[in-house]
Amino acid sequence: MPRATSAVLALLAGTLLAGCGWHPAGERPLPPALRVVYIDFSNAYDVTEPPVELALAQRLVSRGARVVADPQPGATVLKLNNLQERRDVLAIGQDGTAVEYRLTTQVSYELRDGRSVLIPEQTQSVSSEYSFNANQILAKEAEAKQLRDFIQGELADLLLLRLETQLNRPAAVAAPATAAGASPAS
Questions:
Q1: How confident is the model at residue 22 (pLDDT cuts 50, 70, 90)?
Q2: How many Cβ atoms sit within 10 Å of the Cβ of residue 56?
Q3: pTM of the full predicted structure?
Q4: Across residues 57-67, what is the average pLDDT?
Q5: Rounded CA separation 122/110 (Å)
Q6: At residue 12, does pLDDT exceed 70?
Q7: Which pLDDT score is estimated for 51?
Q8: Which residues contact 102 (CB under 8 A, 6 or more apart)?
Q9: For the chain, does the N or the C end have fewer beta carbons within 10 angstroms?
Q10: Per residue in 96-126, pLDDT tens?
Q11: Which fold would CATH assign to domain 26-173?
């Protein structure tokens, strides 16, 4: 009898979780606006695609979206700009050298669908701390690069989560785009 009770309880728990909208991570359906996406990244003086753009594209594709290389009719445009990476000193050793840092990565984003602004420009940031030992400089430089890549992956996860959340809000109504400096008609 305990086996049957366990099975009934597991079935009941699964039904309750499915009924409340819970899904395993990465298995939520994408909002319609994210099914075909063009990622428009602009960052002055940067010639390579940053890890955040690549990670975001990978996450969208893994969730069933189609990421297009050029803007096309019907594609939602996710504009990423002002990617900034900052390294702040948190602690200084007895010899006056920095021994602990905080890496912060920040990006601005906006989501447009044709002439409508689905999500107005916002900023998202992620930070992480790491220690530094001058005796292990090569290992620490590699660790800092790995940490930067990890932070940008985290940033991509947060961006996708925020986009989904804002697009799934019942009050998410598209605002018409206005030209720079122009005021919306009353």
A1: low
A2: 27
A3: 0.69
A4: 93
A5: 7
A6: no
A7: 82
A8: 87, 88, 90, 127, 128, 129
A9: C
A10: 888 888 888 899 999 998 889 999 999 999 9
A11: Double Stranded RNA Binding Domain (3.30.160)
- Which segment, 37-46, 86-95, 106-115, 128-137, is predicted with the most confidence on average? 106-115
CA-CA distance, 102 to 32, in Å (whole number)? 37
Is there a contact between 40 and 82 (Cβ–Cβ < 8 Å)? no
Euclidean distance between CA atoms 96 and 92, whole angstroms: 6
DSSP β-bridge partners for residue 105: 85, 126
- Mean pLDDT across the stretch 7-23? 58
- Those residues whose C-beta lies under 8 Å from the C-beta of residue 116, and which sit 6 or more positions away, are 174, 175, 176, 177
- Do the beta carbons of residue 177 and residue 117 sit within 8 Å? yes
pLDDT at 100: 87
Per-domain residue ranges of the chain: 26-173
Query: Which residue is it, tokens 């430089």?
Result: 141
User: Residue type for 79, please?
Assistant: K
